Amino acid sequence: MAPGPDSDHDAPDGDAGDQAERQMRFLFALRSRGVTDPRVLAAMERIDRGAFVRGHFEDRAYEDTPLPIACGQTISQPSVVGLMTQALNPGPRDTVLEIGTGSGYQAAVLSVLCRRVLTVDRHRRLVAEAEAVFRAQGLTNITARVADGSFGLPEQAPFDRIMVTAAAEDPPGPLLSQLKVGGIMVVPVGQSDAVQTLIRVTRTETGFAYDEMRQVRFVPLVEGLGQT
Length: 228
Ligand code: SAH
Prior knowledge:
One of its GO terms (cellular component) is cytoplasm. The active site is at residue 76. Belongs to the methyltransferase superfamily. L-isoaspartyl/D-aspartyl protein methyltransferase family. Catalyzes the methyl esterification of L-isoaspartyl residues in peptides and proteins that result from spontaneous decomposition of normal L-aspartyl and L-asparaginyl residues. It plays a role in the repair and/or degradation of damaged proteins. It holds the Pfam family PCMT. It is a single chain. By secondary structure, this protein is α/β, with parallel strands linked by helices. It has one domain (11-216): 3-Layer(aba) Sandwich (Rossmann fold), CATH 3.40.50.150. Helices cover 30% and strands 24% of the residues. It has a 7-stranded mixed β-sheet. Helix 2 packs across helix 4. It is globular and about 55 Å long. The model is unreliable at 1-10 (pLDDT under 50). S-adenosyl-L-homocysteine binds next to strand 2, helix 4 and strand 4. S-adenosyl-L-homocysteine binds at residues 73-76, 99-100, 102-103, 105-106, 120-123, 126, 148-150, 165-166, 219, 221-222.
């Protein structure tokens, strides 16, 4: 039977076409903002940011913009996730600690690139929601915990890499001490809530080397556990 005038027989192609175009734009935005590491681009192609954004903002998940999530927090801008991941340079055998699970998107991108991700947030609700997305997406090498990340996770230390996705006045001492020699930490640092400098810290045999990367805007690292 010939398709009638209101047949939707070409809709699946249309959807697949839209999705491919959206993906192309997403990757183009990342590249044009300096995310050039092919491993990072492949990881970000694989993890669907749409799975980590809920409610009103769902349809903006593929734009290169930060978006609000629960508990007054934000999912970072994709190009900033890309640049931070690139700077962290995790290897396939690495264990990575992330401070600030938020939506879980950054942890998911890291999980494609390393052996294991431990991620902590001070909000129970964010940890529970992120865990549900990790399960739904089949990301089995991520462990999420409710904890004050300023103290790191001493019982699991030391780490090959530490990613801090909330702004600190200085790189927190406990996190520096939980980094392996040769390990790298990426952390937004600054006195102001409005703008901070992204720093890459490398632990050497004798101390720490600091590289300033660029200006960023993150929510602050807050002491203690959240109410929810
Ligand atoms: N990486 C997240 C974005 C993080 S937003 C993502 O990909 O979506 C910053 C997060 O840091 C928030 O969820 C906030 O609750 C958390 N946070 C702030 N201070 C913290 C602390 N001391 N310990 C653990 N998490 C903290």
